Amino acid sequence: xxxxxxxxxxxxxxxxxxxxxxxxxxxxxxxxxxxxxxxxxxxxxxxxxxxxxxxxxxxxxxxxxxxxxxxxxxxxxxxxxxxxxxxxxxxxxxxxxxxxxxxxxxxxxxxxxxxxxxxxxxxxxxxxxxxxxxxxxxxxxxxxxxxxxxxxxxxxxxxxxxxxxxxxxxxxxxxxxxxxxxxxxxxxxxxxxxxxxxxxxxxxxxxxxxxxxxxxxxxxxxxxxxxxxxxxxxxxxxxxxxxxxxxxxxxxxxxxxx
Length: 258
Known about the structure:
The protein is α/β, with parallel strands linked by helices. The chain folds into two domains: about 5-195, 2-enoyl-CoA Hydratase, Chain A, domain 1, CATH 3.90.226.10; about 200-250, Lyase 2-enoyl-coa Hydratase, Chain  A, domain 2. It is about 45% helix and about 15% strand. It is built from twelve helices and ten strands. The chain has helices at about 30-45, 65-70, 75-80, 85-90, 110-115, 145-150, 155-160, 170-175, 185-195, 200-215, 220-235, 240-250, and strands at about 5-10, 15-20, 50-55, 60, 100, 105, 120-125, 125-130, 165, 180. The strands form two sheets. A six-stranded mixed sheet has the order 1-2-3-5-7-10, sandwiched between helices. Helix 1 runs parallel beside helix 4 and helix 10 runs antiparallel to helix 11.
């Protein structure tokens, strides 16, 4: 498919989606949200794709929601409409691993999109923040919840209540991003991370992702039980047998996702 607001490519087993509204700092418009969901749907159905990268451009990952679209909307329109909330649901429950390349600003809805992804690679110049308080609203795409879980109550309060922004190194120290690289290497580093994950068993990757995400929703005892159930389940997969035999035979495994 051809898109107006995103660029889509497939590089080996990695699907790459690049946000492409440079004139608006990749603000999340209704059209961009719709095209992002469509591109993610296509990669989800493509059995050749085992990991997905979402990247911005040199100017911004995304500066947030498109305020021009939202400024005159009513509460009823927000509740009944389909603006960007379906995107958070899509990304947050995406079955394949996702890696974000935070090339520059990730603000508001842009940071919420990033935090919905599994792994974040940031450029040295990246700035991350939730500035919604400046226009009289609060984060609505998961910012109050995901950010607090990532950086703790005090830091999240500071960011959300006063528009305090994090640089890349501080975000890494707090655990919000996984690694920091030079700006020119950011997208390629994210692709490298995704390509490495794509060499692993798709079955094991999917269940591992499920288990880690459940750690934010369950108590420790229930989480350990859930993990053990998935661990046992993997012994019914062909990939587990292939991986173990490849290890014993000192060769690279050929995972089929079965």
